[in-house]
Design goal:
- The chain is of the alpha/beta class.
- It folds into 2 domains: 156 residues, Spo0b-associated Gtp-binding Protein, Chain: A (Distorted Sandwich), CATH 2.70.210; 176 residues, Rossmann fold, CATH 3.40.50.300.
- The protein is 16% helix and 22% strand.
- The chain contains 4 helices and 14 strands.
- The strands form 3 sheets. The protein has a 6-stranded mixed β-sheet with strand order 10-11-9-12-13-14, with helices on both faces. A 5-stranded mixed β-sheet has the order 3-1-8-5-6, with no helix packed on it.
- The relative contact order is 0.14.
Length: 360
């Protein structure tokens, strides 16, 4: 991976259909053989292919224009032109295709392996098709249809079961490294995590994907710190884990501040299943602070955790498993009762897709 990118734009176009041919049969001993112009080939399609080994859209910033091949023209002797080759655009799972002008979601590629976005133009018919008893020498053929072209926005929403939310240095990366094979950077200064990180947590028969989102600070919705640009990546999660540093004097305010920033981005996020995790319980005085946190949020599940001393790790694992199991049970019940709708997301109208490629 040569860089992380979760948003870009593309100019895509399907191929034009080939023109039909105007031709007449000319062979020895066969005078006035009649029309024999062949049809033009179909233009190539624009196809999005979901690749499981991709985790970013960085490769799409190297080439922003994708055009399928035009269909070939028809030829004499009723020879048809070759169809144009499709252009395939590889994208990672969780990619969303949008109209760059309106922000309208055109397609959510979750659970999709291959999607034909723009169809190629149809090939024109040769003059062979226009012969009749009274028009035995048609000197015209049908032109091929034009392909379609469009500027689109491409956004990535990572697919995870549990998303970690918290201030910088709250212990999100340490927990991810502890539960999964991820090896994210851990250091004693803020914003060591600059891009979303994923890890697979395997516990018994359960496989749970965890997402570590770069830390939020108060005012993130107004652009403070790293802002909220990565919060779109927890829009698909089953539940949220709020990690609160118990050694921080703002430990009693942290959850409310984080909820306020989430609500500013997308109020629906607060309806997800939640667990509050007080971290760094090995620090002096954190036991009393954990109890105070539990009393303030008595209506929510509050757990204590120290990754380095392996304290509370099993309780956190069980909480994650319970959140995912409850969601799966609810989804299964919904399937039994009938369709309940799919993924929805508010368009990111602030996304910037320039009209002039020279600006990039």
């Amino acid at each position: 991976m040569f860089g992380f990118s979760d948003e870009t734009y593309l100019d895509v176009a399907s191929g034009n259909g080939g023109n039909g041919c105007v031709s007449f049969r000319r062979e020895k001993y066969i005078p006035k053989g009649g029309p024999d112009g062949g049809d033009g080939g179909r233009g190539g399609d624009v196809v999005f292919v979901v690749k499981q080994n991709l985790r970013t859209l960085a490769h799409l910033k190297l080439v922003r224009t994708y055009r399928a091949e035009n269909g070939k023209n028809g030829m004499g002797d009723r020879c048809y032109g070759r169809d144009g080759t499709d252009i395939e655009i590889p994208v990672p799972p969780g990619t969303v295709i949008k109209d760059a002008q309106t922000g309208e979601i055109l397609k959510d590629l979750t659970d999709v392996d291959r999607w034909v976005f723009l169809k190629g133009g149809r090939g024109g018919q040769g003059n062979y098709h226009f012969r009749t008893a009274t028009r035995q020498a048609p000197r015209f053929a049908q032109p091929g249809e034009k392909g379609e072209e469009m500027r689109i926005g491409v956004e990535l929403l990572v697919i995870a079961d549990i998303g970690f939310v918290g201030f910088p240095n709250a212990g999100k990366s340490s927990l991810l490294n502890m539960l999964t094979n991820a090896r994210t950077k851990v250091a004693g200064y803020p914003f060591t995590t600059k891009i979303p990180q994923l890890g697979m947590f395997r516990y018994g028969e359960h496989d749970i994907v965890l997402a570590d989102i770069p830390g939020l600070i108060e005012g993130a919705s107004e652009g403070a710190g790293m802002g909220i640009k990565f919060l779109r990546h927890i829009s698909r999660t089953t539940g949220l884990a709020f990690l609160i540093d118990l050694s921080d004097d703002r430990y009693l305010e942290a959850y409310d501040i984080l909820c306020k920033e989430l609500e500013s981005f997308e109020p629906e996020l607060l309806k997800k299943a939640q667990v509050i995790i007080g971290t760094k319980t090995d620090e002096p005085g954190t036991a009393e602070r954990l109890e105070a946190l539990k009393q303030k949020y008595s209506d929510k599940q509050v757990l204590g955790l120290c990754v380095y001393l392996d304290q509370g790790v099993d309780e956190v694992k069980q909480a994650f498993i319970r959140m995912v199991s409850d969601q799966e049970a609810a989804a299964k019940k919904g399937e039994d009762e009938g369709p309940q709708g799919g993924f929805t997301s508010a368009p990111d109208l602030d996304a910037y897709y320039p009209e002039d490629m020279s600006e990039i």
